Amino acid sequence: MRVRHKQPTLVSMWMLDVFCCALGCVTLLFLLNSRMATESAKANRTALLDLENTDKKLAAALGALDATKLKLTSEQAERGKLAAALTELEGVRLKLMDEARQLADQLKLARTEKDETGRKLAVARDEAKAAQERLDATQLDLAAIEKKAGATAKELATARAEMTDADLLLKKRQKDIESLTKKDAATATQVDGLQRLVRTKDDERVAMETRMSSAQKELTDLEARLRATQKELDAQLAAAQTAAKALAEELAAAKAGAAKAGEELGTARAQIKDLTRKVDDANVTIIDLQGDKAKLADKYNKFQKDSESRFAGVAMTGKRAVFLVDMSGSMGKRDLQTLDSTKWPLVIETVCKVMRSIPTLERYQVIVFSSSAKWLFDDGEWQSYDGEKSVEGVRTALLKVKPVDDTNVFAAFEKAFALRTTGLDTIYLFSDGLPTSGPGLTPAQERANPPLSETEQGTILGRHVRDTLDRTWNRPVAGQSKVRINAVGFYFDSVEVGAFLWALARDNDGSFVGMSRP
C-alpha cells in the first residue's frame, strides 16, 4: 500500500442559482410595488370622475335655482299668473326632491368608495408588510449565503446593493401609502361636506314644501278673496321676494362650495399625474430587470447545457467507451491501515454517474483489474447502452466485486485496447494509486538491494504504461483516431499518484479529476 497525500477539493458551480434567486426577489418586489401604485392611481381616477359628476349635478341644480328665481321675478309683474307660478314651484320642489335623492345616492356611493378605498389601503398596507417580510427573509438568506460563499463577495455585494435599492423603493412606496392615507382622509372630509350639502338640500326641500303649503293656502284664500284682499296678496308677494333673496344667497354658497371642490379636484389630478409618472418609472425599471433576467437565463441555459456534458470538469465524450475500474485492495481502505466500507460503493456510484453523463454513449464495456484484469460482461463483447437499465446493470455487477490484491494498470490497458479495432474511442480510468505489479522493471531493478521503495517501483511501472500507450497501444494509425483517456482518482495521499494519473490523461488528449475524501 502506498503513502498518499490529499488532493485539493474542486469547487462546484452553484452561485448562478443564488444570483438568479436574488434577482427574482428584487423583480417580485418591483412588481408588487407597481401593482400597489397602479391600484391607488385607479382609485384616485374613480374618485375624480365621481367629483366631476357631482360638480355637473350641482351646476344643474344651480341652473334650476336660477330658473326659479326668474319665475319668482315674473310673478311680481304678473299677479294673475300666481297659480301658474305655484305650479312651477311644485315642479321645482319635485326636482329638488329628485336632486336630494340623487345626492343621497351619491353620498351612499361616496361612502362605498370610501370604504373600498379604505379596504384597498388596508390591502396595500398588508402587501407592503408582506413585501417587507419577504425583504427581511431575503436579507437573512443573503446573510446565510455570505457565510457559505466567501469566494463570491462581489456577486453578494451586487445583490446587497440591489436589495438596498429595493428597500429604498419599498420605503418610497410606504410614503406613497401615507400620501394615500392623507388622500383618504381628504376624501372622508369631502364625504362629510357632501353629507352637509345633502342635509342642506333636505332643509331647503322642507322649507320649500312649507312655503308651497303656505302659498297653496294663500292661493285658496286669494281665490275666495281675490278682489277684497289685495293688501294680503302684496304681503305674500313680498314674502316670495324674501324667499327668492334667500335662495340667491344659498346659490352663492353652493357656487363657493363648487369652486372649493374644483380646487381639490385640481390637487387630486396633480397627485394622480405624479403617481402615474412613478408607475411608469417603476414599469421601465421592471422591464430593464426582466431584460437582465432573460439574459441571465440565457447564460444559465447555455452553462447548464455545457455542464450537462461534463463531470467535475471532465468532458463527457465517446460513442464506444471502456471503463477501467481499479479493484485492488486499496480501493477498500481509507489509508494503509484503515478499512473504509464506503469507498468502494462511492467508486461504483462515480462510475455510474460518469456513464449517465455521457450524452453520446452507444456501446460500452467494463474492465475490473487488480493483479490481473477481466471483463465484467460477456468476455469483451460490446454492450448496447440502454440508459438507466445499463447503469443499474453495471452497479449490480460491481457490487458483487470485492477489492483485493495489487494494481496492474498495464494488464487493464492491454485488455481495453483489444477493442480498438472495433471502434474504441474513449477510456475512463478509475483508480487510487500507482501501479504495483506488471511488466516494466529490469532484472537489475527487481534484484536491487535494498529493494526499491513502493513509490519508486510505482513510478517506474507507471512510466512503462505511458510509454507503451505512446509507442504501441495508442499510437496514430491510419483510419483510426487516437483513443481519449480520462482519469478519475480517489483519496490521494501522495503527489506521485496524482501526477501519474494527470500525465496519463494529458498524454492521451483526456482530462483528470481527483475525488476528495468525503
TrEMBL record:
Residues that span the membrane, as ranges: none
Keyword Coiled coil: yes
Keyword vocabulary terms for this entry: Coiled coil
Pfam families from the UniProt entry: VWA_2
Positions in coiled-coil regions: 86-148, 205-292
Limits of the VWFA domain: 322-433
Source taxon at top rank: Bacteria
Name of the molecule in the record: VWA domain-containing protein
